[in-house]
Specification:
With 326 residues, the protein is an alpha/beta fold. 43% of the residues lie in helices and 13% in strands.
Length: 326
C-alpha cells in the first residue's frame, strides 16, 4: 500500500538526460501523462533545458530544468546510453528530492544515475541484465540483483531494461490506487495487467509457440480455478506432462516456479475482491484458494505489507455495487 496518495493530482516528474532511451522516456509519459482525467500530473525536465539528444532518434525539446524536482511527488529517471555519472547538479537535485520524501524511480540504466547520486547505497537494485555486472562493479555498495523485472525498496524503485519499465510503472499505479485501477490502466495500454517484480527479466530459452494444451491454456485454467487445491502435481496432470517437465517449462516461460506463480495470481485476485466486493475475509480466502481466514491474513500481510482490512479500507471502490456477502 502507498502512503503517497494526497489531495490533488500526484506530480510525476520525468528527468530526461542526454542520450535518453526513447522507450524508457515514452513509458512513463504514456502511463502517467496520457491518462485523461487520471490521478497524476506529469512534467518532463532536464539538467540543461532545450533540445535533449535521444538515443536513436531526434532530440526532444524540454523547457523545464532541475528546479521542477522541488515539487515532485515521484521522480522517474529513464535509462540512457551513457553510463557515466551525471553532473553534480543532477546528483544533488535527486538527493535533495529523496531527502524531502519524494519517491525516486529508475528505468533500465537510469539506475546508474541513482547510484551516482548515492541513493542506492545499501539497497537492492535492478537494471538491464546486460549492465548488472557493470553497475555492481562501479557501485559496490549497491546490492545489484540481475534477475528481477523490478525491485521495490519502498521510496526507491528500480526496473530492468526497456519493457520492464512498463511493469514498474503499473506497479506504482497499483501501489497508489489498487489492483483494479492498475488493471484498468493496463487494459487501456494493451499491457499485461500484472507481472510480479520477482519474475525473471531474461529467459535463457525462447518461449515456444503456443499450442493446444500448452502452458497458456494451463495458466487460463488455473486462473479460473484458484479456489481449488492446485498442487504442482495437479497442474502437471492438467497440462498432461510430468511434474519435472512442468516445473522446467514454468521457469522457461515465466522465470518463476509454479507455486510462486500461483501465489501471485491468488494475491492479485484477492486484491480485486477486497477492492470491489463486500465479501468477508473468509470468503475472499476461500475464493482465492488461500486457506483459512487466519492463513490468508498472514500471507497477505507478509506479501502485501498490510492486513486485508487495511488494504480494503485504502483501495476499495466507492462507486461500485458491492457483491452480497457469503
Amino acid at each position: 500500500m502507498s502512503d503517497r496518495v494526497s489531495p490533488g493530482p500526484h506530480h510525476v516528474v520525468v528527468l530526461a538526460l542526454e542520450g535518453v532511451l526513447p522507450l524508457d522516456l515514452g513509458i512513463p509519459l504514456q502511463v502517467f501523462g496520457a491518462w485523461q482525467g487520471g490521478p497524476y500530473r506529469l512534467t518532463v525536465c532536464t539538467d540543461r533545458p532545450g533540445p535533449v539528444p535521444v538515443h536513436g532518434g531526434p532530440p526532444v525539446c524540454v523547457d523545464r530544468g532541475l528546479e521542477v524536482l522541488d515539487g515532485a511527488d515521484t521522480v522517474i529517471v529513464p535509462g540512457r546510453v551513457d553510463l557515466s555519472p551525471p553532473t553534480a547538479e543532477v546528483c544533488t537535485a535527486l538527493a535533495e528530492a529523496a531527502a524531502r520524501g519524494a519517491r525516486v524511480v529508475s528505468i533500465c540504466t537510469g539506475a546508474f544515475v541513482l547510484a551516482a547520486a548515492g541513493l542506492l547505497d545499501g539497497r537492492r537494485a535492478a537494471t538491464h541484465w546486460r549492465h548488472a555486472a557493470e553497475l555492481a562493479a562501479r557501485y559496490p555498495r549497491v546490492r545489484v540483483e540481475p534477475a528481477p523485472l523490478y525491485v521495490d525498496e519502498g521510496e526507491l524503485l528500480t526496473s530492468a531494461g526497456v519493457a520492464a519499465g512498463l511493469d514498474l510503472c503499473l506497479h506504482l499505479v497499483r501501489r497508489d490506487h489498487g489492483a483494479a485501477v492498475a488493471n484498468g490502466r493496463a487494459r487501456d495500454l494493451v499491457a499485461a495487467p500484472h507481472r510480479a517484480g520477482g519474475q525473471a527479466q531474461f529467459i535463457e530459452r525462447p518461449v515456444p509457440v503456443e499450442r493446444p494444451g500448452g502452458l497458456g491454456e494451463l495458466h487460463a485454467w488455473a486462473l479460473r480455478n484458484l479456489h481449488r487445491d492446485l498442487s504442482v502435481d495437479r497442474l502437471a496432470r492438467q497440462a498432461g506432462t510430468s511434474r519435472r517437465t512442468l516445473i522446467r517449462r514454468f521457469h522457461a516461460e515465466t522465470g518463476l516456479p509454479p507455486t510462486r506463480w500461483l501465489l501471485e495470481a491468488r494475491l492479485g485476485h484477492a486484491r480485486e475482491l477486497l477492492e470491489a466486493t463486500d465479501l468477508t475475509v473468509q470468503s475472499v480466502a476461500r475464493r482465492c484458494g488461500l486457506g483459512t481466514a487466519g492463513n490468508f491474513r498472514a500471507v497477505f500481510r507478509e506479501h502485501v505489507g498490510v492486513a486485508p482490512s487495511v488494504y480494503r479500507e485504502s483501495f476499495r471502490a466507492t462507486d461500485r455495487g458491492a457483491a452480497t456477502q457469503s
